[in-house]
Amino acid sequence: MGTMLRGFLLLLSLLSITAPAFSLYEDQVGLADWHQKYIGKVKDAVFHTQKTGRKRVVVSTEENVIASLDLRHGEIFWRHVLGPNDVIDRIDIAMGKYVITLSSEGSILRAWNLPDGQMVWEAFLQGPHSSKSSLLVPASLKVDKDNVILAFGKGCLHAVSGIHGEILWKKDLEAESFEIQHMIQASGSDLIHLVGFVGSSRFDSYTIDAKRGELLKHDSAAIPGGYSGQASLVSSSTLVVMDSAGSTVTTISFQDGKVTFSQTPVSTLIEDFVGKAKLLALKLEGVFAVKTGTHTTFVRVTVEGKLEVVDKINHATAVSDVLEISENRQAFAFVHSRSNGIDLTVKLGADWNHDLLKESIKMDQERGSVQKVYINNYIRTDRSHGFRALIVMEDHSLLLVQQGAVVWSREDALASVIDVKTSELPVEKKGVSVAKVEESLFEWLQGHVLKLKGTLMLASPDDMAAIQSLRLKASGKSKMTRDHNGFRKLLIVLTKAGKVFALHTGDGRIVWSRLLNSLRQSETCENPTGLNLFPWHVPHHHALDENPSALVVSRCGPSDDALGLLSFVDTYTGKELSSSSLDHSVVQVIPLPFMDSTEQRLHLLIDASGQAHLYPKTSDALSVFRPELSNVYWYSVEAETGIIKGYALKEKASDDYSFDTRSIWSIVFPSESEKIIKTSTRKLNEVVHTQAKVVADQDAMFKYISKNLLFVATVAPKASGDIGSSTPEESWLIVYLIDTITGRILHRMTHHGAQGPVEAVVSENWVIYHYFNLRAHKYEMSVIEIYDQSRADNKDVWKLILGKHNLTSPVSSYSRPEIMTRSQSYFFTHSVKSIAVTSTAKGITSKQLLIGTVGDQVLALDKRFLDPRRSVNPTQAEKEEGIIPLTDSLPIIPQSYITHALKVEGLRGIETVPAKLESTTLIFAYGVDLFFTRFAPSRTYDSLTEDFSYALLLLTIVALVAAIFITWILSEKKELRDKWR
Amino acid sequence: MSSIARLRPALLLLLLQFCLSVLSPALAISTGSVDGHTINGRIKIPVAIGALGKISNVKVILNGGQNVTFLRPDGYFSFHNVPAGTHLIEVSATGYFFSPVRVDVSARFPGKVQAALTENRRGLTELVWEPLREEYYYEIREPFSIMSLVKSPMGLMIGFMLVVVFLMPKLMENMDPEEMQRAQEEMRSQGVPSLANFLQPAATARSG
């Protein structure tokens, strides 16, 4: 009997052995995760609208993406993200089947197959020095039945075969600093004109035979009045340039080997002209456009070379390139934005007074001004020309406009996420019954019967489809209210466009989006850039009728000393509550753990001169903050000079809300041997559950847990470049653990023969960092764990009884405890873009690392694989504790990619947010794409999984009850029979 | 129709070109004219390309992102302007696990290839390699089996019940009759509540 029970228990324990923590069945994709693809702000577009086949537009973007979009719906056919050092300069379509990209300052020319995005060929163009690049795909130029593509880059002109990408000929122009402006094919001939400038004063024109690459002619002349870098081509032999002062227009005619100039002051063209004029890049026959302030003036150049104003538009306008609609007929469009929409005008180049098209398009939300417009035409059924326009707005969105309406739009600001924070959703209102939202009992049961069929593999394909659709809309995951498990939240996302989005974690839809007025370009603030998001006002449990709000910190320019901007956004509605321009710069923002009486979080903004400013600027906040003045410390890292400094606040305030600071410590790294490449700290909101770690032999180790731990990695200056640029002997990596209050160096370790890039994550009492080992020529990951030795004595029972322990003494940075560190290193196969760690509500669940690999996937790796106590032959006790035998490299299990078969193209960051349910953490990975999922690091031990079959449970219970009654009846009968006997 | 006919010779030419390039030992490191070298290589992906790993989505990455390039239809790739030194090439292809490759670009012996897979230290005579293994990102659903039903908590419940109902009496039978009797006595004296006793008062109460 006893052996049987034991056997049974053994069976139970065998069954409970767990598989990898994260694993997904293919039919579970999309249940808890969502993935969105973006491309970024479009910087160039080429249409491909032939009569046959699907209509598409090929775009290149600021995120360095080349993509082919469906013109009908705006979906992505294919897309490639090029490397960060390989910026796309020009795109075009050749021979109606290849997309041609010129990148890396005109040194790499690639052809992509238009239907599927497969790279067909790649040509490397070399030249003596860097220069501007230009690309020309002539339609009719052929050399031996081969189409020729002309690319200018690095001071050389290359002719490349369109079919297989061979370089047919190369012509070095032998002109230092020749900046190409235009490459023109003289119509109907094989001659190519290159026009450009040398420096700011000389004009050069080259004529080249496109078939053989011979230089036929070279003209050069000094431009009177200088050159500002803006030029507009008005005919194949006339160029208009703006002088460096922005006040005179020079017309350059370079026909027949003669270069002639004629100058016209802008003021004679435009009355009441002041300031600086700009030339718009318009390639219209005989017309150029001058922009002065918000006005755009179109000027015609007559055959005799005279200038006359044809039109003047008093709005901020975007002008499209010229579109050849038929023989000698050119059309172009200009668009300007109104208060609630945009006006699109298409004009014929030759006939100025007549509009081909004039439409005003209503838009349902604020998208700012129009930045770029590209037009394309189609033939209507009545043989007239129709036009469609692709419009890039200030908020980086992309719109396709046709017949006076927006056909589709893409929110491509989401490709450039700067910062992410979460906000709770509103609580479900009383009176709205849950039952109304949930389906009826019968439907519920039906669903579960279906699921049961699924698990028993009895379901037909129809049933399977029904199960899948049931799962996808499961349990109202996209409801706009808080849920019990804390899975439903709002992701507040700040983007480079200055637009703030709220995404629902359930299905990833945009709940609201707002182009912040304070983050738009203005005269006072030329180039505003967003920096950070902070939760500003999070209502208390009893004040749930108030909406929470977030603080957006930004500054007016890329440099540190640009003035700051603050903006407050309601996270339920997206309304910009208020905004203010600061009179100081913002270098660092310290969210303080204090709140004023209206529950606004206190923030300390540090400016470039080292002064601290308290926000909100209320006397209430000040009274909360004053007593804590002496407890506020921070540090700054100056990577260029190699100095880390610690600061404290001075008691005496310079004005009411600003405080002077004093430097209290500094660490100077020797610049000849060390260069700071990475710093990392613990997340402020991380929760640690246990202070001690119980080790195998009934022993305990106390974790050194400090919120002020800073990880710093330095490398030898010689090894700070890329891999392959230094030898193992001359490179080293030194890591430091620094207490940021006292500046005490807790630990220092050198890795010889190692170099960056370093990615690191700090959590609880450990640091994990990733670097390159030059000797093994492999990537490595190391872990350092820190333990508090001073509390190790507390294990003595006698001391505890006699009260001689220090368990009740406060943990302070000033107490300088004895610490002990342990570390270990392992090989890791891939390079890493970002490392994060899971975080849960109470910190009880074991941790997993989230590694963003070079292939733009996110891999979950159990922290137990990075445990310094791993050894080759763990003892029995250690095995029971869960220590994995030591291997030299970390395992990569395909099933533990949390992004499964998807890629987060251009991955830049991974954010983890705890759910209310302790076992679960929410993960948001962003780059060009967005990916969100729910993840349970040690499986969902505190809730039933989604595919738990309630029907099977019910069935079992019914069966058990039936069995009980049957056996009861049987035993009754037997008893009766016995009694009769 | 005519356009297709025109295309054909071009395609043939293309094919011929590829055959030639396969034959020629182009997979080497050649010196460029300026300052850098060129690394040419080839990646072989098994023909069975599923929905996951399209060759057009394969990226070849030099030194952790310094240069990124793509594969030509025949699997060839090249990096240009690479300085002399030891470099690392990684391949990112959904559905396949590739070992990174270390490549020595030597300034002294141009054209000489020294490459090795870093995962298993296997040397490559030519810069041609293939994935170490396929990666399947999903758990495979096991087909329905009695075992899986038995393993589920409900199955275990039923199993336990069956054991108690059918095996326990058998075990009891094997026991010494005297001992059995003693045990039964003990049980009776303790008054173990049986289900029948439990339900009977309720039944009598209802009838009464």
TrEMBL record, chain A:
InterPro entries referenced in this protein's UniProt entry, alphabetically: Beta-prop_EMC1_1st, EMC1, EMC1_C, PQQ_b-propeller_rpt, Quinoprotein_ADH-like_sf, WD40/YVTN_repeat-like_dom_sf
Entry superkingdom: Eukaryota
Membrane disposition: Single-pass type I membrane protein
GO terms for biological process, alphabetical: protein folding in endoplasmic reticulum
Domain ER membrane protein complex subunit 1 C-terminal: 763-980
Main location: endoplasmic reticulum
Domain EMC1 first beta-propeller: 24-412
Subcellular location: Endoplasmic reticulum membrane
GO CC terms, sorted: EMC complex
Transmembrane parts of this sequence: 948-971
SMART domains: PQQ
Signal peptide start and end residues: 1-23
Gene3D superfamilies assigned: YVTN repeat-like/Quinoprotein amine dehydrogenase
Membership in a protein family: Belongs to the EMC1 family.
Assembly notes: Component of the ER membrane protein complex (EMC).
Name the UniProt record assigns to this protein: ER membrane protein complex subunit 1
UniProtKB/TrEMBL annotation, chain B:
Keywords linked to the UniProt accession: Membrane, Signal, Transmembrane, Transmembrane helix
One MF annotation (Gene Ontology) recorded for this entry: carbohydrate binding
Transmembrane segments: 154-172
Annotated membrane topology: Single-pass membrane protein
Signal peptide interval: 1-28
Main subcellular localisation: membrane
A GO cellular component annotation in the UniProt record: EMC complex
Keyword rRNA-binding found: no
Compartmental location: Membrane
KW Calcium (keyword) present: no
Domain ER membrane protein complex subunit 7 beta-sandwich: 55-157
Entry's family note: Belongs to the EMC7 family.
Name of the protein described by the UniProt record: ER membrane protein complex subunit 7 beta-sandwich domain-containing protein
Source organism of the structure: Linum tenue
